[in-house]
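Fresh eyes needed here. Have a critical look at this protein's tokenised backbone.
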Amino acid sequence: MSERSEVYHAPAVLLPEGWQQNVRFEVSAAGDLVSLTPGQGHEGATRLAGPVVPGMPNLHSHAFQRAMAGLAEVAGAGEDSFWTWREVMYGFVGRLSPEQVETIATQLYIEMLKGGYTAVGEFHYLHHQPDGTPYGELAEMSNRIAAAAKAAGIGLTHLPVLYGYGGFGGKPAGQGQRRFLNDPERYARILEAFAGRHRGDPQIRLGIAPHSLRAVTQETLDAGVAALDRLDRTAPIHIHIAEQTKEVEDCRAWSHQAPVEWLLSHLLVDERWCLVHATHMTDVETRRLAASGAVAGLCPTTEANLGDGFFNVPQYLAAEGRWGVGTDSHISVSAIEDLRWLEYGQRLKLRRRNLMHGGPQGSKEGQANVGAFLWRQALAGGAQALGRRIGQLAPGWRADFLVLDADHPALVARQGDALLDALVFAGNANPIRDVFVGGRHLVRQGHHNAEAPSARRFAKTLKELLA
């Protein structure tokens, strides 16, 4: 054991093989798990106050949108939709400075940690000045996101967005999109600058995010992937896809194929990829996406807020598709709520209960724990999408974990997978007591070390923006 490693003891821990009792585990100075041994005493170890579960990866975030949560809930003269919401967002994003983006992201990431998310995939498309002119440092805005992640302590997979057009087939972008736009050459320089600055940081991973098939062409998409491959041929690739029915209709009009069908037919989509939303797929697309090994990035609270529709969960799970969750526009920042509403959406759609499960794996024959299935599946899919060794507590993986309050009314007297069922479905008060990321104890008894100064800066920024 190294001089700076830490040893912990927990009454129960969710390990890859299942729940184990009285687990003693060691965390290296670098923030990795060294060993985990069940059935041990607590002598000489820091005792944790409750059951321990892996922290949840958040696979889809637009950090700046945290500051506009609630501002698009006023009905307009016509029919409101995702597309009218997008115009509100464009107006808001046009006013943000680098300092304000860093402040908003720091506050958001603190809230994520308190809500059970210990790593985030930042789908970052706010690159330039309000008139579209690049900053002197091309990766200025990306570096602000990294600074926010460091200040909060959350793990980051940074996904700079490739955005070049305003519609399928290379249609010109509009005024509201000018801060997002790059050609492939300048985009590659942003990737290279960010990679050079943060190389070697175990808490930061670089990937890319072609915004959508509306915002790229085959040629620019290929160029973006090639730019990433020159830096890291295993790095993640995320894309918005098939979120709205109009998007599907427009894609068919352009290419005679639906968006997921087009992507799977024109690119090698594999385990590196995360298809965000993928809400409107045919049965064939659903099976093909599952077979590809890619992750479906589901954002239930945002998708409900925007009126997107319901993901085809039953068929996708039957095809053994991989998935994870994200908070997207951050109208809610809670791992528990997004998992809960993923299941509730299916219950409302199909008028049945207990739909998301992995078969009879519970403590009694013929039973399966829905909350436990949701938590485990989202851990695995989210970790794959973020391309980091997170999502499970095992030697060599990052020490990202939550300590639950076993005395919380929602959890009291629950054990094993019944504890995860209660965590996901019982009540609204947060039962997460402590949060560790890379071995750092960031949230203690529900409070983040930096929450008070961050909240003050966030309040000042919002007053400036909304004045």
DSSP finds 14 helices and 18 strands in the chain. Residues 98-114 form the longest helix (17 residues). Residues 56-383 form a domain with the TIM Barrel fold (CATH 3.20.20.140). The longest strand covers residues 6-15.
